[in-house]
């Protein structure tokens, strides 16, 4: 294996600098509003914890580690004087300052992922493979999109890749108890960042049992079981209130089951079960990881299977399991593919090194220099297309947002005291002027009391794909159509991509907004009529 030279470290530094340059310009997107739906799930409990409100996050949509991490960032900002207000009354702390530093922490996580990917690919196939993998991760639109909002994806990705790196030492047969311990801790942190982090233990198990010269005695090796115990202990230590609240975990899992539409109606094509999301996720990877990088990743998988099939299994265990499980649901969310990028990038780096001959001159009839030129051109073209997409995406999301524009119109034109139900990806409404009910993602299709509200606010992010492909979830599509027929549309805001950005916002009014359902009042949420 070639040793890294100063030029490799210099190029790695350029990758990290490029990663920061691609991510930092988007850090203020949505300001002065907080438009990313993941932000409040983490920032609100984090602000309460940082202000001395106790360590219980009181929400378990995500495990608690991302919340505790943000709370620590806020406290650090206070101690460094970045946030100069007192935490005794957190309402006095400028929220934009907090969000800026919270998002900056996400960028730091993203840069750490790039560095770990370099380490992983370099350990497998040499420093040049590490540079290709780092570059692919740097420019991936999936990574860039998730690198300047406060979300669990980057911490989850970081700890999952850290677990994988520890398992490479286990696979080589040189790992002692300390490496097993570290792998267990990292896997536990991945689990405490996302519930799907449970798959992070798969590379650990694969590496332990697929080490060279398999022996039956490995079944009784205490180190691997100790690592699993440590993973569970770490999860409990970093998400303690979920464990102490017996119903919280079941409620969280039920909420995720509902969100992903596991109980959706059978698909029209077969009538045997819900439609899956494998093709949708594959399309996301094709567009936001790139066809060139995916091609190199496929070559890298082949190269690993030829050279070290056990390394291929260890590297593929986590992303394959996650893709299989998430793709089985009828509804999909792009962010689920973010944590696959580093592993695909490691495969891509290995593929590039194998074709050139750094991992063995397997294509001797073609001169090595020509192969190097071809691979460099493929990597450069793939990186160029992704950078263009990154820049276009960042430019678009930092334009004036439809949600900010529609918020102003709503507060200027709707009557005070009106009852409003709004979905996710819609403008935050002043609760002092209106009685607002937050319905979450796809809320208009799930809440059966929407007919009791004076106004509904819908976002295309919730229903556009649903109505475009009604066969994926016929019940949900029909529900949206019924609601839109029952409520007249009074105003819409659609971005043009040049001057404005954001989802299309639609404002609907009850046919007789002055007439309230029996038993309702301006002081409480209206009941269904």
Structure notes:
This protein has 529 residues and is mainly alpha-helical. 58% of the residues lie in helices and 5% in strands. It contains 21 helices and 5 strands. α4 packs antiparallel against α5 (127-139), α5 packs across α16 (341-356) and α14 packs across α15 (309-327). The longest helix is centred in the first third of the chain and has 31 residues, at 95-125. The radius of gyration is 25 Å and the shape is globular. Mean pLDDT is 86; it is low at 85-89, 262-273, 359-363 and 515-529.
Helix/strand-derived category reads mainly alpha
What fraction strand?
A: under 5%
The ordered string of helix (H) and strand (E) elements is HHHHHHHHHHHHHHHHHHEEHEHHEE
Distinct helical segment count: 21
Radius of gyration: 25 Å
Q: How many DSSP-defined strands? A: 5
End-to-end distance: 72 Å
Overall pLDDT level: 86
Strand order of the largest sheet: 2-1-3-5-4
Number of self-contained structural domains: 2
Shape: globular
Indicate the percent of residues in helices.
Answer: 55-70%
How would you characterize the largest beta sheet? 5 strands, mixed
Low-confidence spans: pLDDT under 50, at least 5 residues? 85-89, 262-273, 359-363, 515-529
